Structure formats: structure tokens, C-alpha cells
Amino acid sequence: MEIERALHMVGGDGNDSYATNSRLPMKAIMETKPVLCKAIEGVFASLSSPALAKIVIADLGCSSGPNMLLVVSGVIGMISTSGYLEKMELQFFLNDLPGNDFNYVFRSLQQLKQLADGREGSLEPPYYIAGLPGSFYTRLFPYQSVHIFHSSYALMWRSKSSQSGVLLNKGNIYIGKATPSHVVKLFQNKFKEDFSLFLALRSEELVSGGRMVLTFLGRKSSQMLAHGDVGTMWELLAEALQILVQKGRVKEEDLTTFNLPFYAPSVDEVTELIEESGLFDVEHTGVFESSWDPHDDSKSNGGDDVVADCARSADSIANCSIRAVIEPLIADHFGESSSSRCMSPLLPSILRKEGLCTLS
Ligand SMILES: C[S@@+](CC[C@H](N)C(=O)[O-])C[C@H]1O[C@@H](n2cnc3c(N)ncnc32)[C@H](O)[C@@H]1O
């Protein structure tokens, strides 16, 4: 599978689209706003003449939805109230893979005006926005030209799916309970390789004194399969696919040869790689939890929480956390009709059966 072509969120603004179903990552953007604000202050502090500056900000893996608007308007808002406004100009680059719905991105930029109208009384700096298709596992910018890299919920995607060892991960699509340890190692090594490359590329593109704010969908502990982590969700998706194999709607061989180009790292894995690279200083790391249910704002992440409406929760997890994100990839591998369409009624029932809707 060629990831650059096959991986993209569901475009447009229909019921199944990422734009309509991206409240879960939105929670992460809200949570990390103070960190982004601190990063901007750090960049200003490092500028020799902040009153005459052009600041370049890149959102890597922006997708097509309201979250990238939140990032752009958030940065504009922070700078508007920073006291550094005079003669400040901002250049935003919105990056994603070429299959991303950039038309939706460009159309939605007009909503920035409404967001600005909500910020009463403050002037805003002139800003310019450009789309940038390409993989963040390649060079995207000229040498030392970017002040701030932001990336949220994107770096857990790999540049390639791990092919060697897939036959030994039969019935799974990610690291599951039955996955042999050397296959787990393959997933880990691919993450190490990709993230080290990412760090090396960004270190060339970042200006001296620049900052990166990176948010991963990750694991809260070093344990590979903690109940409620994202691995549980991919196990349920694998189970849904196994049922389709039993019903003859998906070929067994197609399931055997499918491994998600994904790895959810722990915070220690991320910080160790940054330290090993010697390319960046870590100013802040943090872990936060959120419920898998996009409409549940509690930070529950334990097995004892009770969800008021389990059926509704299961449906929104299936739509928001799974379908809007993974349907194009599944359709690319298994075929449009045989997999993604008939998978949708199966997933909520499996989620309900497993009680995942009670966990984050
Ligand atoms: C779950 S979405 C998150 C989007 C957005 N940042 C948000 O918070 O809502 C992850 C995005 O990362 C993009 N992505 C994955 N791998 C990428 C790569 N190598 N280069 C650029 N974008 C990538 C995907 O296409 C997808 O749009």
C-alpha cells in the first residue's frame, strides 16, 4: 500500500467526514493551547528585532476540518494580544498528504474572519495562508525558514506499513494480544526510524530559537496493550474484519496482509528519541487523557466509569474515532463495497460488547 496516496481523512463536510467528526482531536488542541502560547513567547524572546518580524508557522498534518482553523486563529489571537503586534507579519503553511481535501481547507478559511470578529477590540497582524501538500517525512521547507512547527494527532502515522512479519500477525491489523514480540519490535523500529527522520528534517528547517509543539495520540504507559488505549480500538476493528471474513465479505488473505501504518508511542519513547537525536532541547512534556467519546468532555480513562448512553457513545466512537479517520485506508486495501460500508454496523455493536465506550 502506498501510504502517501491511500492515507487521508474522509473529506468534505458530510455526516461521515472528518470535518464533522473531529471533536476528539479538537480536545487535544484546546488542551495544548497554553503550550503553543508559551512556544510563541519563546520565539519572540529569541528574535533580535521582534517589532520587525515575519513569523512562519507550519501546521503539519492539518487535515480538512475545523481544527486547523482553531490553530491558525489561536496563533493570530495570541499574537494580537502579545504586545509584539507592530510590523509583525505571519505566514502560515497548512501541510498534509496530497490526498487531503485541500479544497475544503481553502473554502473554510473564510471562517477565520468570523473567529476574528469574536475577539473584540484587538487588532490583528497581517497574515498569509498557503496549503502545502507533501509528507512530513520529507523536506518541506528551505533551510532555517520556519519559526514554529505545530502538529497534532498526526505523528502516530507511519511513512510505510510494516510488511515484513505481517503473516505472523494473522487476524490483527495492529499490535494485538496475539502479536509476537518480534512483530511488536517491527512496529517500534518503524516509529523510531520515522520520528528520527522527522526530527532531522525539522531541525534543518527551523530557525535558530524556533519551537515545535507536537501532540501524539499515544500510550499513557510503557505497557503495550493497556485496556482503553488506542490498541484496544484497533483490536475491535480487527474483530469486525474477522467477522466479515467469516461472512465471506472480505478475503482472509486481504486481512492477513493488512497492517496499520500506525504506532502509538509512550511519552518515554518520544522523549528518548528526541534526547538521542541531540537536535532539540525538550522544554515541556505532558500526558493528558480524554474520553474516547468525542461528546464526553470528562477526562475519564479507567474501567470503572459509567457512560450514560452506551449505545450513543459507541456510535460516535465508531464514527468519529474510527470511520472518519480510517475508512479511506480500509477502502483502499479491502475495496470500497466489501469492507468499509458493511463494517459500519458491526463496529458499534462490537464496541458495545467490549464496553470500550466506558473507557477513554
Ligand atoms: C487525525 S488527523 C489530525 C488532523 C488535525 N491536526 C487535527 O488535529 O484535527 C491526522 C492527519 O495527519 C495527516 N498525515 C499523516 N501522515 C502524514 C505525513 N507523512 N505527512 C503529512 N501529513 C500526514 C493525515 O493525512 C491526517 O490528515
UniProtKB/TrEMBL annotation:
PANTHER family: S-ADENOSYL-L-METHIONINE:CARBOXYL METHYLTRANSFERASE FAMILY PROTEIN (PTHR31009). Keywords: Magnesium, Metal-binding. One of its GO terms (molecular function) is metal ion binding. InterPro entries: MeTrfase_7 (IPR005299), MeTrfase_capping (IPR042086), SAM-dependent_MTases_sf (IPR029063). This is Jasmonate O-methyltransferase. It comes from Oryza meridionalis. The lineage of its organism: Eukaryota, Viridiplantae, Streptophyta, Embryophyta, Tracheophyta. The keyword Metal-binding applies.
